[in-house]
Write a structure and sequence with these properties.
9 strands, four-stranded antiparallel beta sheet, 264 residues, alpha+beta, 51% helix
C-alpha cells in the first residue's frame, strides 16, 4: 500500500494501474485521461479505478496538486474474506467510478481524505488507520458493483417487458402479463416503468396503442371501426376519443392529413 501525496503536471505520465487506484482532487481543477477519455476533476472529487486501467495526467493547476492512493485489496483481508469480498470483484467489467460531493458521496470522500492523511503520517498506528480507511473504500467499490449488477438485471427485465408490449400491443396486455414477461411482481413492474420512463405500464401500453393506431391509419387499407376493433377498444367512439386525446386530432382527420402530405 502506498500514497503519493502530491502529483503535479507531468509527474504522472501514461501508466497502467497495477493495483486498485484512487485519484483525489483536493482543490483546484485537474484533468486526467482514463482509458483514452478525458475526465475533469473539481475540488473534492475523486475517481476510483480498477487495476489494469490506463491513466495519465493531462492538466493540474500548479497550486493544487492531486493525491493518488494505491492498494491491493487482497492484502486488506484474511484469505477467507478476500475469497468472498475481493476475488469476485477483481475481474469484472466495471473499470471506473466517479465520486462527486453533490451526489451524496460526502462520507466516502472524507474516508479517502483520512486514508491519504494516515498514509502521510508517521504515527505508530498510521498504517493500521490507513488500512481501515482503505477497507471502507473497497467496501464502497463492491457496493457500487453490486448496485450496478442489480440495475443491469432491472434493465434486462424492462427490456423483456417492452418487447412483450410491442409484440402483443393489439391484444391490450395487462399489468400482470407485462410483469410476468419481465419475471417481476406487478409492483416491481410499476416501479421499473416509473424509474426508467417516468410512466406507468398501462400508460405506456396506451401510448404504444396510439402509435400503432397512427401506423394503421397511414396504411389506408382498414376502416376506422376495424382499427378500433383490432386494438381491442370497446367502441369506435372510445377509440376516437382516446386517439384525439393523444394526437390532438381525430382518426379521420389524421388520415386525411396524412393523405394530403403523401400527395404533395
Amino acid at each position: 500500500m502506498k500514497s503519493i501525496e502530491m502529483i503535479r503536471h507531468g509527474s504522472l505520465t501514461l501508466k497502467v494501474t497495477d493495483h486498485f487506484t484512487v485519484l483525489f482532487c483536493k482543490s483546484g481543477t485537474s484533468v486526467i485521461r482514463v482509458n483514452g477519455e478525458s475526465i475533469t476533476l473539481h475540488p473534492r472529487e475523486a475517481v476510483l479505478l480498477a487495476r489494469g486501467q490506463s491513466v495519465m495526467v493531462e492538466k493540474i493547476e500548479e497550486a493544487s496538486p492531486m493525491r493518488l492512493l494505491e492498494f491491493d485489496p487482497t492484502a486488506l483481508f484474511h484469505p477467507e474474506l478476500a475469497k468472498r469480498y475481493v476475488t469476485p470483484y477483481l475481474n469484472t467489467e466495471k473499470s471506473m467510478h466517479m465520486i462527486k460531493p453533490e451526489r451524496g458521496h460526502q462520507s466516502i470522500i472524507q474516508t479517502i481524505e483520512r486514508a491519504v492523511q494516515h498514509l502521510s503520517a508517521d504515527g505508530p498506528l498510521a498504517l493500521m488507520d490507513a488500512t481501515l480507511q482503505c477497507t471502507v473504500i473497497w467496501r464502497y467499490w463492491i457496493q457500487q458493483e453490486t448496485e450496478t449488477m442489480k440495475n443491469e438485471n432491472k434493465r434486462e427485465s424492462l427490456r423483456h417487458m417492452l418487447a412483450y408490449v410491442d409484440a402483443h400491443i393489439e391484444d391490450r396486455p395487462t399489468l400482470a402479463q407485462i410483469a410476468h414477461a419481465g419475471s417481476v411482481s406487478r409492483s416491481e413492474c410499476s416501479r421499473l416503468f416509473v424509474f426508467f420512463g417516468d410512466t406507468s405500464p398501462i400508460a405506456y401500453v396506451q401510448m404504444k396503442r396510439m402509435e400503432r393506431a397512427a401506423t394503421l391509419l397511414e396504411d389506408l387499407t382498414e376502416g376506422i371501426a376495424d382499427i378500433a376493433n383490432r386494438l381491442s377498444y370497446s367502441s369506435v367512439s372510445h377509440f376516437v376519443q382516446t386517439f384525439k386525446a393523444h394526437h390532438a386530432i381525430t382518426p379521420l382527420a389524421y388520415r386525411k392529413q396524412y393523405q394530403k402530405k403523401r400527395a404533395e
